[in-house]
Design brief:
Distance between the termini: 26 Å
Shape: globular
Number of helices: 6
Strand content: 15-25%
Order of helices and strands: EHEHEHEHEHH
Length: about 150
Amino acid sequence: MRRRTDPPSRIAHVADPDAASRAHLAGLLRRIGCDVAEARTAGELLDRATREMPAIVVVDLALADVSAYECCRVLRERHGVHLPIVMVSEHRREPADEVAALLLGADDYICKPVNAEIFCARVRRMLARTQARVSSVSPLTPRESE
């Protein structure tokens, strides 16, 4: 279990049923300095995200076992609103799909094929905001601050 004084995690969790797509996304995340935990299903993702606190999660909408929206809800319950969650999709490309993902808790929605430069820039910004937020948290408990 990470303590508030521990350095922030740089583990990116990627859930995508397609091995080639999952490998591509994982490669992009490694390029920007993340360690990557890959999953084929939402169940695998949720299990791994319980064991290792993710710095960011990338979820494909095509998960078969649990919907990506439900997965997002569970991640929010477990890790709070500060965990960056990116949803990706190859087939759901309408603006309504993006709106639904954002309203249900995703921080970003990216259609496939993923543009590597845009994906990396967006992920870097999300990780930087998370890092800044963690750095501003005092290592003292409220009682110690008093």
